[in-house]
Amino acid sequence: MSESSAAPLTPITDRVKEAMRVSLRGCDELLPEADWLKKLARAEATGTPLRIKLGLDPTAPDIHIGHTVVLNKMRQLQDLGHTVIFLIGDFTSTIGDPSGRNTTRPPLTREQIETNAQTYYKQASLVLDPARTEIRYNSEWCDALGARGMIQLAARYTVARMMERDDFKKRFESNTPISVHEFLYPLMQGYDSVALKSDLELGGTDQKFNLLVGRALQAEYGQEPQCILTMPLLEGLDGVEKMSKSKGNYVGITEPANDMFAKILSISDTLMWRWFTLLSFRSEDEIAALKREVEAGRNPKDAKVMLAKEITTRFHSAAAAEAAHEDFQRRAAGGVPDEIPECTLSGAPLGIAALLKQAGLVPSTSEAMRLVEQSGVRVDGGVVSDKGLKLAAGTYVVQVGKRKFARVTLGA
Q1: CA 152 to CA 220: how far, in whole Å?
Q2: CA–CA separation, 224 vs 220, rounded Å?
Q3: Per the structure, how many domains does the chain have?
Q4: Are 88 and 134 in the same domain?
Q5: C-alpha separations of 48 from 80, 86, 87, 354 in Å
Q6: Which residues of the chain have pLDDT under 70?
Q7: Segments forming the whole domain that contains residue 205
């Protein structure tokens, strides 16, 4: 793009500059920046909102806060007055997204898709403003394409360009099978942008290729190509691996407030600042000022509590966040939460490992033994050190780690 063609035709006002700054906050890439600035300036001059698209395949019924990194960006752009389109990929889910895969992804059944889609938007609405969100399903236009339309769409993109995609290239070079239907996924995601006349599409860094296909197809169909904005994949509680339920390093947005609050307080002081940038709605100036205070000697835990309260409030309420903070302080002081699960077991005298497993506090007796060895088990406040301990009939408050409690009534 030449310098003259890249120059916006409308004034770059302070509001446009602020919108650009909001767009860039925490993002991995914004392509092409000059085109997005031009779109923002035009929208400001004409009062016409831009159309901003996020597509999510309902591959699982629940969302964790890692998924909300992109939703947060949508909300920020929504608050600037633009139209956000929450696109549920009920059609593309039947193909299966090959992004980052070294094997063919099994497609979901229609029943799985419908079940997951029911909860997806409800959970996303905890971040987005439902009154200003357009909800669409890509089966609206994908089903209507039919075989003839699919072939005509496929004619607009070459195999050579498809093989530029990193995961396809690696699988081809290693003789790992690639099914022809997998080529259809980026095409269909790109066609979504044509159908919706998208100005900007958001996604994780792993979606860059698919987003660029959307740009190419819009040009093929005579539309102004969308810009693309990719957001980083959020590291989980361990600060190393990306947040994932399968890795157990996640914070679910529907889990209890006390658990959410405690998990956020468990992250490292270093990871905390990245989470502030990607998850907090505080301004960058506020975050920078808070970081300077910590560097000058303020306890980093103060900042972490602020982050935990903000996120817990978003997905629960301010009252729940405050109660979670009090609960955390009580546990840290060795106290027992006001409300803990209760269960009734039989078989007294019962070994401690079997009791922990049957009470649902550990997944296995071997894990129970390991925790006893590490002094991670308490009964009525006392640390259990004997793996052979057997408990007689009675009622006990059993604690595993810092956060898991149960009031167990054990009978004969």
Answers
A1: 12
A2: 10
A3: 3
A4: yes
A5: 12, 19, 21, 64
A6: 1-9, 60-61, 96-107, 333-334
A7: 3-231
Q: Is 251 left (phi over 0), alpha (psi -120 to 50) or beta?
A: beta
Q: Alpha-carbon distance 310 to 47, whole Å? A: 32
**pLDDT score for 103:** 54
Q: What is the pLDDT, as a whole number, of residue 98?
A: 57
- 197 is annotated as contributing to ligand binding: no
Q: Which amino acid is at 27?
A: C
Task: Determine the pLDDT at residue 44.
Answer: 95
DSSP reduced 3-state for 139: helix
Q: Is 342 in a helix, a strand, or coil?
A: strand
The token duo for 12 is 């770059």
Is the bond leading into 32 cis (omega within 30 degrees of zero)? yes
Which residues are CB-neighbours of 146 under 8 A, at least 6 positions away? none
pTM of the model: 0.73
Structure tokens belonging to residue 331: 């546990």
Distance (Å, whole) CA 353 – CA 365? 5
Q: What is the pLDDT of residue 5?
A: 47
| Cα–Cα distance measured from residue 177 to residue 183, given in angstroms and rounded to the nearest whole number | 12
**Which of the listed residues 308, 332, 356 is the one where a domain comes to its end?**
332
